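2024-03-11 09:14:02 INFO worker-7 job=invfold-0412 stage=load source=structure_tokens
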């Protein structure tokens, strides 16, 4: 980009509004993919893919799957 980086501190929920206002040129942060974000913002390939896991005690008969 031939630009000198400059750190800008902001709240997590203000990152995308700051991009929209052109207060910043890019953001380095973890966002979950959504079709809405993909429609409005360019992004890199994820460096980490998060998958939700369910953990319960073995002796818990009430919760054995996502359905319960």
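2024-03-11 09:14:09 INFO worker-7 stage=emit residues=68
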């Amino acid at each position: 980009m031939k630009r000198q980086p400059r750190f800008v501190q902001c709240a997590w929920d203000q990152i995308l509004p700051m991009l929209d206002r052109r207060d910043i040129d890019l953001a380095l942060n973890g966002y979950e993919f959504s079709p809405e974000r993909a429609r409005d913002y360019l992004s890199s390939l994820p460096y980490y893919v998060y998958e939700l896991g369910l953990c319960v005690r073995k002796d818990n008969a009430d919760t054995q799957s996502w359905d319960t």
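2024-03-11 09:14:09 INFO worker-7 stage=report msg="The chain has two helices and no strands."
2024-03-11 09:14:10 INFO worker-7 job finished
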